[in-house]
Design goal:
binds 1,4-dihydronicotinamide adenine dinucleotide; 14 strands; single chain; L-carnitine dehydrogenase; EC 1.1.1.108; 3HC_DH_C; Rossmann fold; Thiol Ester Dehydrase, Chain A; alpha/beta; 484 residues; 16 helices; NAD; 6-stranded antiparallel beta sheet; binds the ligand C[N+](C)(C)CC(=O)CC(=O)[O-]; N-(1-d-carboxylethyl)-l-norvaline Dehydrogenase, domain 2; globular
Length: 484
C-alpha cells in the first residue's frame, strides 16, 4: 500500500488528520478551497510536532510531505486512504463522494469523519458504496487515539480489517462498531451529558465553570482510565456491578435528569452560555487553550502509558513497533541508544530540561544497550541484572522542550562483573551532556555481584573491542571539582 493520504476538508478535524498522518510518516495531499486552510493545517502541524512525539520514548518515522492540491482529483489520485472532513451536511458529503470515486483508486479506503451519519446514509447514490466507511475521530486527532470505525452491509470485511491495520500503524485505536446507529457510540454519550449541561445552565442551576469543575475535578479523572462500567463496578463495593445497579437503579426512574427533552437554543440561551464561557475562559485565546489542552493530554497520556491503562495501553503497543533497530556489536562506532523528543514534563522552572531528566535519559539509554546485549525481561526474571554503583553527568549545553535528543554509547569495560559505559547526549551537532556510569552485574537471588551469562558477556566484550579504537572521549574519569 502506498503511504499517501488525501485529506478533504481541512478545518478542525481534517487538519488534525493531516498532522497525524504526516507525523506518522505518510505523505499527505490536502484539498480544501478555503483561503485559510493552509494556515489551519500549518498550525495543526506545529501543535502536533510539539506534542505527539513527546508521547513516545522512541523516534517517530521521518515526517511525510504535506502538499495542498489545486483540485480534488489531484489530491485523491494514488491515495491509499482518503479522509473526508467537510461540514456535517449529507448533501455536501454525497456530492464530494461522487467526485472522489470518479478519480480515486477503487482499492483506496474512503473514510468519513462524520460525527453522526451512518455508512448507509453516506453511501446513498455512490458509484461503489462498499468503499465508503465511517472513521470518526476525536479532537485533537493527532493526540487522541480513538476512531469509531463503522461499515454497512455493503462493506467488505477485508476493507474494515485493512482500515484497522492502517489506524493501528498511526498509533490510533480503531473501535469497530457492528451496528449502524446515528452518532455511533461516543457522541451519543456526549450528547446526553451536553443536553443535561445545557439544561443546568438554562435553569440557572449551574454556570459553565461549575459544570466544567464538576467534570474535571471528579468523574472526568475516573473516565480517562476506567470508563463508565468499570468505575461503577468499583462503586458497588464488594457487591460489584449487581449491587451498584440494585442500589442506584431506582434513581434512573425518579429521574435525576431531563432525559430527551432538549432546551430551545434561542438567542437568550446562546448569549447566556457564551457570556458565562467568556467569563470562564475568555482570558485565553483559542490557540492558548489548545496548547494547554495538548500539554495536559501529553502528561496524562504518558502517566497512563507508564501504568499501561486506558489510552496509555494503546501507546505502549504502538511504541513496541517503533523500537530502535539493534546494532551489530562488532561495529566500530558508538550506537544510538536513545532517540526521542523532550516532552513538556521534562522541563523545569528554568525553561529547560531538568537535571533529573538527564539521568533518566542516560538510564533509559543504558537499559536499551543492555537489552540488546541480552538483558531481556526473561533474563532478569531468571535472576540476571545490573546495579549502578557510580554516575557522573556533565551538563555542557542547555536542552529545550521539543528538542530531539540522541544518546550514543561506548562500552569502556564489559564482559565481566564490571560494566563501564560512556554516554553522550546530542541535540543535532551539539554535545549537551556526557554520562559515565559504572554498573555491576548481579545475581538477583543473592543480590551480590556475579559474572553475567555468556550471551550477555560476549555481546558486551565484543562491543568493548569494537569501540576500543575510537578516539578516547574528553572527560572520561572526571570528578566534580577536578582541576583542569
Ligand atoms: N469539530 C469536532 O469536534 C469534530 C468534528 N467531526 C466531524 O468532522 C467533519 C468536519 O468537522 P470540522 O472539522 O469541525 O468542520 P470545520 O468547519 O472546522 O471544517 C470543515 C472544512 O471543510 C472545508 N470544505 C467545505 N466544503 C468542502 C469541499 N467541498 N471540499 C473540501 N473542503 C471543503 C471548509 O473550507 C472547512 O475548512 C464533520 O463531519 C464533523 O461531524 C468529527 C469529530 C469531531
Ligand atoms: C461535537 N462533536 C459531535 C462534533 C464532537 C465529536 O464528534 C467528537 C469529539 O471530538 O468530541
Amino acid at each position: 500500500m502506498t503511504r499517501k493520504a488525501a485529506i478533504l476538508g481541512a478545518g478542525v478535524i481534517g487538519a488534525g488528520w493531516a498532522a497525524r498522518f504526516a507525523l506518522m510518516g505518510w505523505d499527505v495531499a490536502v484539498f480544501d478551497p478555503s483561503p485559510t486552510a493552509k494556515a489551519t493545517v500549518e498550525a495543526a502541524l506545529d501543535r502536533a510536532r510539539a506534542s505527539l512525539p513527546a508521547l513516545y520514548d522512541s523516534p517517530l518515522p521521518p515526517e511525510g510531505r504535506v502538499t495542498h492540491a489545486a483540485d480534488l482529483a489531484g489530491a485523491v489520485r494514488d491515495a491509499a486512504w482518503i479522509q473526508e472532513s467537510v461540514p456535517e451536511r449529507l448533501d455536501l458529503k454525497h456530492t464530494l463522494f461522487q467526485e472522489v470515486q470518479a478519480h480515486c483508486s477503487p482499492g483506496a479506503i474512503l473514510a468519513s469523519s462524520t460525527s453522526g451519519f451512518t455508512p448507509t446514509e453516506l453511501q446513498a447514490g455512490a458509484q461503489r458504496p462498499g468503499q465508503i466507511i465511517v472513521a470518526h475521530p476525536f479532537n485533537p486527532v493527532y493526540l487522541l487515539p480513538l476512531v469509531e470505525l463503522v461499515g454497512s452491509g455493503e462493506t467488505p470485511r477485508d476493507l474494515l480489517a485493512k482500515a484497522e491495520q492502517v489506524l493501528d500503524s498511526l498509533g490510533m485505536a480503531p473501535l469497530t462498531i457492528e451496528a449502524e446507529v446515528p452518532a455511533h457510540i461516543a457522541d451519543r454519550l456526549l450528547e446526553a451529558v451536553w443536553r443535561e449541561a445545557l439544561w443546568l445552565v438554562k435553569d440557572g442551576v449551574a454556570t459553565t465553570g461549575q459544570i466544567d469543575d464538576a467534570i474535571r475535578l471528579g468523574f472526568g479523572l475516573r473516565w480517562a482510565q476506567m470508563g463508565l462500567f468499570e468505575t461503577y463496578r468499583i462503586a458497588g463495593g464488594d457487591g460489584g456491578m449487581a449491587h451498584f445497579l440494585r442500589q442506584f437503579g431506582p434513581a434512573l426512574k425518579w429521574p435525576w435528569t431531563r432525559l430527551m427533552d432538549v432546551p430551545e437554543l434561542d438567542e437568550a440561551l446562546v448569549q447566556k452560555i457564551a457570556a458565562q464561557s467568556d467569563t470562564q475562559s475568555g482570558a485565553h485565546s483559542i490557540a492558548e487553550l489548545e496548547a494547554m489542552r495538548d500539554d495536559n493530554l501529553v502528561s496524562i497520556l504518558r502517566v497512563l502509558k507508564d501504568r499501561n491503562a486506558g489510552a496509555g495501553a494503546v501507546l505502549r503497543g504502538h511504541e513496541a513497533g517503533l523500537a530502535l533497530p539493534a546494532p551489530d556489536p562488532d561495529t566500530p562506532a558508538m550506537p544510538v541508544t536513545l532517540d526521542r523528543q523532550v516532552p513538556v514534563t521534562w522541563v523545569d522552572y528554568n525553561g529547560h530540561m531538568n537535571e533529573a531528566r538527564f539521568l533518566q535519559a542516560f538510564s533509559n539509554a543504558c537499559d536499551q544497550l543492555l537489552h540488546w546485549a541480552g538483558m531481556t525481561p526473561e533474563a532478569i526474571a531468571a535472576g540476571h541484572s545490573v546495579f549502578t554503583v557510580e554516575t557522573h553527568i556533565r551538563h555542557l549545553d542547555e536542552v529545550q522542550i521539543g528538542d530531539r535528543i540522541r544518546v550514543k554509547a561506548r562500552v569502556i569495560e564489559g564482559g565481566g562483573k564490571k560494566f563501564h559505559i560512556w554516554q553522550e547526549l546530542w541535540v543535532g551537532d551539539r554535545l549537551c551532556a556526557t554520562g559515565e556510569q559504572m554498573l555491576l552485574h548481579v545475581d538477583l537471588a543473592t543480590r551480590r555481584s556475579a559474572v553475567p551469562p555468556d550471551r550477555i558477556a560476549n555481546w558486551l566484550a565484543r562491543a568493548k573491542a569494537a569501540h576500543a579504537d575510537l578516539p578516547w572521549p574528553e572527560g572520561v574519569g572526571r570528578a566534580v571539582g577536578q582541576r583542569a
